[in-house]
Amino acid sequence: MMLDITRRVEASIREAVEDEGFELVGVELAQTGRSPVLRVYVDRPGGVTISDCAYMSRRVGVLLEVEDFIPGSYTLEVSSPGLERPLFREADYRRFQGREIRLQSVEKFEGRRNFTGRIKSFSNGVVELDCEGVTFSVPLDRVKKANLVYRFD
């Protein structure tokens, strides 16, 4: 149900977000406490400011009120993807090939659910991760959450 809502939200706001010169990075719906939190991640070349997020929050909020996808009350958060950018789509895995990511799967693969490694490749719906010399293949539809890893050197 939550995945269906995020897809519907994404489809309904994508054009408006892109018309404003932003990239719609992704949408998450999380159940925290009594009411859900809808997170919308936006980006643009040069980054996103707090004012950009506030503006897009108002713009997206109006669109979502009209569509009324989410039953009951919820909290809308619009933010930058940040340094540890979440990965949502196939294009994200291709774009960040060679970069280190942290990935959590919905089920165990070779005895584990949590992986940290470099994206070796992405093809046929499967991300290949090099985790300290061991390659793991995780189908995208079995990824619960994935983020870039930022190392402070």
Overview of the structural elements:
- With 153 residues, this protein is α+β, with helices and mostly antiparallel strands.
- The chain has two domains: 2-79, RimP-like superfamily, N-terminal (GMP Synthetase, Chain A, domain 3), CATH 3.30.300; 90-148, SH3 type barrels (Roll), CATH 2.30.30.
- The protein has three helices and eight strands; from the N terminus they run αββαβαβββββ.
- It has helices spanning 2-19, 50-67, 90-95, and strands at 23-32, 35-43, 75-79, 100-109, 112-123, 126-131, 134-139, 143-148.
- A five-stranded antiparallel β-sheet has the order 7-6-5-4-8. The chain has a three-stranded mixed β-sheet with strand order 1-2-3.
- It starts with a helix and ends in a 5-residue tail after the last strand.
- The model has no long low-confidence stretch (mean pLDDT 93).
